[in-house]
Amino acid sequence: MTVIDAQAYIGESIYLKCPFTRELLVKRMKENNIDISVVTAMHPAIGQDYSSGNELIREAVQSFPDKFVGLYRANPWYKDDELVKMRRALEDWARGVRIDPFHDSFSPISVEKGEVSLNPLVEGLFKIVAEFDVPVVVPNSYSSFCTPEVAVLLASIVPDVTIMTNLAQMAFLLDHLFLKLTNIRYLTAPLRGGSEGVDSLLGSAIEIMQNKIVFSTEVPWGYPEFELKVIELTNINEGVKKRIMGENIQGTIRI
Q1: In what side-by-side order are the strands of the sheet with 163-166?
Q2: What is the pTM of this model?
Q3: Which of 27, 62, 82, 246 lies at 20 to 30 Å from 38 by C-alpha?
């Protein structure tokens, strides 16, 4: 069974004491029998410009083409300059894009008079990713910028783009009960044990939307050992496990 981590990071960050290098990631992958990692730049130590981080991802992909698939991390506040860099990366090495509403302080959607639409700030970005037919990772949180519900609503208004976001109870319920989206993928990490994770949310989601869930570790923030154990303890049958651990993300990013 091919195991693919759908979200890992390489580089320097304000949140780390020392850089997490591509060599360290390869070591963690080998220790945990992870075949391929989808890698993204970290939030930088200074400022909001991801240029140096994206360059590290490009170098990592070129150094370990059989181990890494790269995502371009975009900050839409840089507008046209960012779009030029993003297009160049998609033409060269990137197979998807990541935006971060929380760290970069924007919402991907606008709501006016009860109508939901795409935030004009990200319209150009989504036009380009639709052109290249690549996914966009949009992490959700319980901040006002991108709640789980916002991430799912975003997927509903950009049906020609696949949105990858964290598996969360409200996102899962909104999608399952009302929207039934085909263009959304749920990253397993960070899951929790007990009633919020192994026993309830992941198990329920797998029963209903097994083709939408993709395994992820969020390493170095997360722990591959723990995330793999979560999957093991959820008692997934082998056919479903193959989809979650590799096949679903292969179909999404065409690995």
Answers
A1: 4-10, 36-41, 68-73, 94-98, 136-137, 163-166, 184-187, 213-214
A2: 0.93
A3: 82
